[in-house]
Amino acid sequence: MHAIDLEPCVPGEIAADLDLIKRLQRKDLLAYRELIERYYSFVYMMALTLHRDETVADQYVLELFTHAWNHASGMTARGSLRSYFFKLIYAKYQRYVSMLPTIKEMV
C-alpha cells in the first residue's frame, strides 16, 4: 500500500468548489476547464503514486474528469472536490488490486 498525502484545503477551496460544481451541473465548459486546471496535478500525482505507471495514471485522469463531467448532476457538496477525487481514484485503485491474481493462483 502506498501512502498518499492529501494537500490541506486552502482557504476558500470548498466555497470555490461549490461554485464550480454548480457551474458543472449547468454544463459550463469553462467550469470544466477550470476543474482540470485546478485538480489535474493532484489527480495525476495520486494515480502515479498508486500505480507507478504513467500510462495508467494518464488513463485514470481521463476517466476521472470524464466521470466528473458526465455525473456532475449527482455531485453533492459535502466537502472539497479534492476529497471527492481522492475517493473516486482510490476506489478505482482498490477494484484494480482486487482483480489481480493472488500468489496462490499464480502457482
Report the sheet-strand fraction.
Answer: under 5%
Instruction: Report, as a whole number of angstroms, the end-to-end distance.
Output: 23 Å
Percent helix range: over 70%
- Rg over C-alpha atoms, rounded to the nearest angstrom: 15 Å
Number of helices: 5
Give the CA-based shape.
elongated
Q: What is the class in the CATH system?
A: Mainly Alpha
How many domains, in number, for the residues? 1
Biggest beta sheet attributes: none
CATH fold assignment: Rna Polymerase Sigma Factor, Chain: A
Q: Please state the second-level CATH architecture.
A: Orthogonal Bundle
User: Based on helices, strands and strand pairing, what is the structural class?
Assistant: mainly alpha
The overall average pLDDT, rounded, is 84
Order of helices and strands: HHHHH
| Overall strand count | 0
Q: Looking at this structure, what is the CATH superfamily? A: RNA polymerase sigma factor, region 2, helix turn helix motif
| Stretches with pLDDT under 50, minimum 5 residues | 1-6
Overview of the structural elements:
The chain has one domain: Rna Polymerase Sigma Factor, Chain: A (Orthogonal Bundle). α1 crosses α2 (29-51). The two termini are 23 Å apart. 71% of the residues lie in helices and 0% in strands. The longest helix has 23 residues, at 29-51. By secondary structure, the protein is mostly helical.
Architecture blueprint of SSEs:
Blueprint: H1 13-25, H2 29-51, H3 54-70, H4 81-99, H5 103-106
Helix pairs in contact: 1-2, 2-3, 2-4
